[in-house]
Amino acid sequence: QVQLVESGGGLVQAGGSLRLSCAGSGRTFSGYVRGWFRQAPGKEREFVAAISWSGSSTYYGDSVKGRFTISRDNAKNTVYLQMNLLKPEDTAVYYCVAGAAHYDGSYYTDPSIYGYWGQGTQVTVSS
Questions:
Q1: CA-CA distance, 77 to 9, in Å (whole number)?
Q2: From first to last of its 127 residues, what are the pLDDT tens digits of the chain?
Q3: Could you tell me which residues come within 8 angstroms of residue 47 by beta carbon, excluding any fewer than 6 positions away?
Q4: Looking at residue 101, what DSSP letter applies?
């Protein structure tokens, strides 16, 4: 069974940090684009970050640029999201995704290119 499993979510005060992890199982995702989306209650799903299969290119949503960092370890089949300077508006369920690598970076914000989604992990930032 192919799965993406997120971990590392939780409750943190504004200004704090969290590190999310997403481990893949059932197949290797080393040749895939990996990324993160989030969805807050009553809001649309939002692109957070993506990283190319090699890790050489990264992309971020405007609301998280300069605060979040995406990275990957292909040997561990895992992608990470380091979140610093967290704000209450970062509160959401964060979803890990994996998509075919033949798309170029201009498509990475489009959720439809990602064929694999995790179950989500809750991040809550208190003010």
A1: 19
A2: 999 999 999 999 999 999 999 999 999 999 999 999 999 999 999 999 999 999 999 999 999 999 999 999 999 999 999 999 999 999 999 999 999 887 888 899 999 999 999 999 999 999 9
A3: 35, 37, 61, 108, 109, 111
A4: T
